Amino acid sequence: MGLSVSGVLGLDGLVNLISLSSAVLPIVYFVVMLSSKQITKIERDRLIAYIPRFLATALFFLLFEQQPNTLANLAEADTDLNILGFVIPASWFQSINSLAIILLAPVMAWLWTKLGERQPSTPQKFVGGLFFVGVSSFGWCCRSSSSATRSTCRSCSRWCS
Q: What mean pLDDT value characterizes the chain?
């Protein structure tokens, strides 16, 4: 941060440095761990099995964390916020995820309890979450690319919710 404030690195340079570090450090971490003589074959196999989950987690949060700015921009620029004469503020779309979590947590807890031993494994649940975030992001991309003429192509507010 000091390099950015002093002007040596600049804000763009700082962002690039953090981005590069975010990509390089996990690779270095896994290389060091995998090449260590102190881990057993079982631990090495588990670490190798963990890499796809690590990459999927990175992808999940890369997509998920786009929500605050992408969804807000999409809601404000490309969404008809007027429902039956009431104009919904675009900022309300930020609350949809939190509201869904609050409302659906008891339902999901009941479902997992009801399913018992038949419930999906943790990796299956994770893949499901990654799938739905991907579908959602694909929807944003399709919606954004189809709205070349913003004045004539405005989606209804149900699209963003």
A: 80
